[in-house]
UniProtKB/TrEMBL annotation:
CDD domains: GDP_FS_SDR_e. Pathway: Nucleotide-sugar biosynthesis; GDP-L-fucose biosynthesis via de novo pathway; GDP-L-fucose from GDP-alpha-D-mannose: step 2/2. The gene is fcl. GO terms for biological process: 'de novo' GDP-L-fucose biosynthetic process. This is GDP-L-fucose synthase. It comes from Marinobacter salinus.
Length: 323
């Protein structure tokens, strides 16, 4: 092994985002990638995390580990969502600092922004209004992660950066029928409907909310890009108290349009029924990605192409998907 290769710890490497970051780092060929499964390292265990960071002496950390889920999961398990996410990021960020790790990238979520934030949502919308109630605990935990990074930067001169992705999808997504996000839930539902010959598929909500979606391989590419920006370029496009950067496509669609696209990709030809008795969540969530574009990165995978590849991955891994 070339001793000059940088050691990088990817926390959450079995998840959708973490596994995409690992793939991206492997393609670069210049990193020694360190990973640990949940059985090998419980990120909720402060002492275990501190001991791991001391012993491994990594150069960089990608903090992609998190407890995630859709509207139903966030509504059902709010205590677990705020507690586990707070503990994971507190343990890892503080342990990285104590171990002398200078570079860390924290992955947050677009839900950090107020429910009725001006669209598209820019980074300075943070903490300017009330959050969407259905995922407020999760959002507060992610906001805390941003502020943790900013605080260690201010007090100790660390280089801890934060990226806020829009809605993600792709390989290794969670396809649970109730606790997953909208794209994997619909892919699974339409796939089952095609196989069963169902005449209709019921979809939560009115279909009117607008959402932006980013393929996880694009997210990994953006994360790598932001992590490797030189300090002057990064700081020139951020502020000392506003260090996070939005990651998205800058393009959104309605949930109805999304469902119609997934139906087309999966070959489903039945009726789509929208159940308006179910919650819609935030009316619109579109990211202002002008800051990231100024830093030299744009998404490259179109929604339909990304959905088609995600569906092919699902069919190839249907017996082993997270569910």
């Amino acid at each position: 092994m070339n001793d000059s290769r940088r050691k990088v710890f990817v926390a959450g490497h079995k998840g959708m985002v973490g596994s995409a970051i690992v793939r991206r780092l492997e393609s670069e060929g210049a990193y020694e990638i360190i990973t640990r499964s949940r059985k090998e390292l419980d990120l909720l265990d402060q002492e275990a995390v501190q001991a791991f960071m001391r012993s491994e002496q990594v150069d960089e950390v990608y903090l992609a580990a998190a407890k995630v889920g859709g509207i139903h999961a966030n509504n059902t398990f709010p205590a677990e969502f705020i507690y586990e996410n707070l503990i994971i990021e507190c343990n890892l960020i503080n342990a990285a600092h104590q171990a002398g790790v200078q570079k860390l990238l924290f992955l947050g979520s677009s839900c950090i922004y107020p429910k009725f934030a001006e669209q598209p949502m820019s980074e300075d919308a943070l903490l300017t209004g009330v959050l969407e109630p259905t995922n407020e605990p999760y959002a507060i935990a992610k906001i805390a992660g941003i502020k943790l990074c900013e605080s260690y930067n201010r007090q100790y001169g660390r280089d801890y950066r934060s990226v806020m992705p829009t809605n993600l999808y792709g390989p290794n997504d969670n396809f649970h029928p109730e606790n997953s996000h909208v794209i994997p839930a619909l892919i699974r539902r339409f796939h089952a409907a095609v196989n069963a010959g169902d005449s209709e598929v019921v979809i939560w909500g009115s279909g009117n909310p607008m959402r932006e979606f980013l393929h996880v391989d694009d997210m990994a590419a953006a994360s790598f890009h932001v992590m490797n920006l030189d300090t002057d370029s990064y700081q020139a496009n951020t502020q000392p108290m506003l260090s996070h950067i939005n990651v998205g496509t800058g393009v959104d669609c309605t949930i109805r349009e999304l469902a119609e696209t997934i139906a087309r990709v999966t070959g489903y030809e039945g009726r789509l029924i929208f159940d308006s008795s179910k919650p819609d969540g935030t009316p619109r969530k579109l990211m202002d990605v002008s800051r990231l574009r100024a830093l030299g990165w744009e998404a490259s995978i179109s929604l339909e192409d990304g959905l088609a590849s995600a569906y092919e991955w699902f069919k190839s891994n249907a017996d082993n998907v997270r569910a």
